[in-house]
Amino acid sequence: MVSKQSRTKVRVKKHMKLRNRFSGTAERPRLAVFRSNNHMYAQIIDDTVGNTLVSASTLQKEVKEKLEKTNDVAAAAYLGTVIAKKALDAGITSVVFDRGGFIYQGKIKALADAAREAGLEF
Predict the structure, then answer these.
(1) What's the CA angle centered on 102, arms 83 and 6, to 5 degrees?
(2) How far apart are CA 56 and CA 90, in angstroms?
């Protein structure tokens, strides 16, 4: 009998395939997104030196107090605006979007759209 892989293993495998295609540089860092069952995380990474330049998540006190729930489309959209504002303050205007192996719909799409509207280019 053929066993089915778990969704997490499939997502990690997709993410590794995506990471082989692109990486973040100093001029154009990578916006990496991760979502768990309860929270969302976004960070902008320079892969040439392996540093996280800017990060934001729904766990942060100033973000969490503005949200009713921490893992819905509204929270993802708000997190997108927060990460974009932090990036623009750090002098980052253009990024490569890394969806982390997640399907580009719902929360991931909401975060990306909100970051674009707030001024990030990708």
Answers:
(1) 140
(2) 13
Contact 95, 28 (CB under 8 A): yes
Closest CA to 33 of 94, 117, 92, 115: 115
Could you report the per-residue pLDDT of 45-86, keeping only the tens digit for each?
999 999 999 999 999 999 999 999 999 999 999 999 999 999
Exposed / middle / buried, residue 21 (Cβ in 10 Å: 0-12, 13-18, 19+): exposed
Instruction: Give the per-residue pLDDT at 1.
Output: 67
Cα–Cα distance for residue pair 114/61, rounded to 1 Å: 20
Nearest to 101 by CA among 9, 3, 2: 9
Q: Give the pTM.
A: 0.91
CB 67 within 8 A of CB 58: yes
Q: Which of 82, 85, 86 is nearest to 110 (CA)?
A: 82
